[in-house]
Amino acid sequence: MTTSSLAVMERHLIAYRRLWKSSALSAVLTPVLFMVSIGVGVGGFVDEVDGVPYLAWIAAPLLLSAVFQQTAQESTSRVFHELNTTRTVHAIVATSAGVRDVLVGRLLYLMIRVQFSTVCFLAIAACFGAVRSWWILAEPLVAAAVAIATALPLTALASTITDDTYLPAVSRLITVPVVLFSGILFPPTKLPEWAAAAVYASPLWHGVDLARAAALGQRPDWPLWAHIAVLGVWSAAGYALSSRILHRRVYDGNS
Known about the structure:
This protein is mainly α and 255 residues long. It has helices spanning 3-16, 20-41, 54-75, 77-84, 88-93, 99-127, 139-158, 167-180, 193-200, 203-216, 224-251; strands at 48-49, 52-53.
């Protein structure tokens, strides 16, 4: 982390001041709506999953779903517009900051937003009685790991897009399927083997497994080291790709 990275983070926070009220309202309303509509509504038709009430079983994964979607939005359409519309990235690297500072500064900014949303979600989940273990205090770390493993690969992908008509396809083909089939609403064991294998490759599923285990005070389905390894691979590969692609876009004139 460098001074330039912190300056990039500060720039994003200053720009965010115009939106923070609506974002803060969303951070409070979203978990309430999720808990009522899915946890209570759908939960009214589902007695238990693996011996756990459906509301408690689904609460922590819903948090990871919200984190994933928030991160995906920031790392696709926002990155696209900063590269192609406002050319904010080009302006930043025209200073003493480099491409790595752009990436790290954006991640720091995302961490602040993700942690705020996480705390709000956990507080509301506790009010609904969906928290059963003090291990839930590890949830912010899980949310941060999923956000990083999501943001960097999607930043790399968004950096290759020069036409905004492709952005909806990213949501329909990546974001929505990942949310629906990452063990949030039902266990991956209910899927065919080939589909379950694809789910286990998703960074969101690893976060969901860790988050659910923490909220319920249980062991995760996979060993902790395996979750860390998969999330680490996504993060490292995403960082390498996004650094390379962004460097080409802003320095080599491939706009």
